[in-house]
Specification:
Blueprint: E1 2-5, E2 11-15, E3 23-25, H1 32-42, H2 60-68, H3 71-74, H4 78-95, H5 105-113, H6 119-138, H7 165-174, H8 180-191, H9 195-198, E4 206-207, E5 210-214, E6 221-225, H10 228-234, H11 255-268, H12 276-289, H13 294-301, H14 306-313, H15 318-329, H16 341-348
Antiparallel strand pairs: 1-2, 2-3, 4-5, 5-6
Helix pairs in contact: 2-4, 4-6, 8-10, 8-12, 12-13
């Protein structure tokens, strides 16, 4: 069993059985609901498909069930399916018996209002409900999608923290070349890929100076040049395993398992705000600081839209960009001595 507190402070409880997907258990720990679910998990009973009455037609529960069996849902990556199920099942527990036509803007506004202390979670729920109601519209269950154009909470959060150069250096000092932690960090930082893709990388994906990646989330096929720093780390990596990264049991990591393992390695380097996902953002930041265009950045990270890239590159080091800007203003890059420009303008206008 694995118990931890997530980045939002919520306690998560999972039942782990070797060779099988982990099973979420209800809290609080040692409650009657926990013990009941724990007993079923040990017995091998699928908790998400335990006997429950068939959802009445035209209810939210029936809509969710239909969505789960649709090509739209099955076209999602495994990680996205897990994310959607987690959010929709939580919503279903409270609202599943209600009619679909009752899920209007007023009702959803009320639901989101009760989540004002968790604005990002509320916004994510709204996104999932928009997809769900769009599916209902396409299947003739409603005559319009009332959630189109509905806005969520304004948030100042920029998501996972983007690693700074100082934080990267501190991790490297704590985890030298030759360690599994250094290999993991360098793979993410020098390829810009998601953890679900990094855990599947191995020598069979290396062709000369390139790593071939088929992104699990998007299905995109990428060829990424191997950076000299990554090459130096890979040169000390065994070639007899199917993946570069293995657990202490000699098995490939799951994406979530890797994220939890990296959390501990970051803590060892006193980097409490850093995470594995933040390294993907740091890669995009470095590319932006090097003067790469959005198209060039997308060629590495695999992002599909300009908006996605912009969201990642907002963390570009302001200090570096400001120094470049002031260098141009003072003629530091060989241009006109622009620092005197205000005087010239005033003379020409007098």
């Amino acid at each position: 069993m694995h118990v931890y507190r997530d980045r939002h402070g919520k306690v998560r409880i999972y039942f782990n059985k070797p060779g099988q997907p982990r099973v979420p258990l209800p809290g609080p720990l040692n409650s009657p609901a926990f013990f009941a679910a724990y007993a079923k998990a040990i017995a091998g009973v699928e908790l998400t498909t335990t006997t429950k009455p068939k959802a009445a037609k035209d209810t939210i529960s029936a809509l969710i069930e239909l969505y789960y069996n649709s090509p739209l849902f099955h076209g999602l990556s495994d990680s996205s399916k897990t994310n959607y199920r987690r959010i929709l099942e939580r919503f279903r527990q409270e609202h599943g018996d209600k009619p679909i036509i009752g899920l209007g803007r007023k009702h959803v506004t009320s639901i989101l209002g009760k989540m004002s202390d968790r604005p990002e979670a509320a916004n994510t729920l709204l996104k999932r409900l928009k997809v769900l109601m769009g599916f209902a519209l396409d299947n003739g269950m409603v005559d319009h999608n009332p959630l189109v154009g509905m806005k969520g909470f304004k948030t100042s959060s920029e998501g996972f923290h983007t690693w700074s150069e100082d934080e990267i250096a501190r991790f490297e000092d704590r985890h030298p070349i030759g360690s599994k932690a250094r290999l993991a960090m360098t793979l993410m930082l020098c390829t810009g890929q998601r953890r679900s893709d990094v855990v599947r990388m191995g020598w069979q994906h290396v062709d000369g100076n390139l790593i071939a990646v088929k992104q699990q989330k998007t299905g995109a096929n990428l060829l990424i040049p191997i950076h000299p720093k990554l090459k130096a780390v890979l040169d000390q990596t065994p070639r007899d395993n199917m993946t570069f990264l293995l657990t202490d049991y000699g098995k490939p990591f799951s994406a979530n398992g890797f994220g939890n393992w990296m959390r501990k390695r970051c803590d060892e380097a006193a980097l409490s705000v850093c995470s594995s996902h933040g390294l993907r953002k740091a890669c995009a930041r470095r590319l932006a600081e090097a003067g790469c265009s959005n198209q060039e950045i997308k060629a590495v990270t695999g992002h599909e839209t300009e908006a996605e890239v912009t969201r990642y590159t907002k963390a570009a080091d302001q200090k570096v960009l400001a120094l470049k800007a002031m260098g141009k203003l003072s003629g530091g890059e060989g241009g006109t001595q622009s620092a005197n420009l205000p005087d010239k303008v005033s003379k020409s206008s007098s």
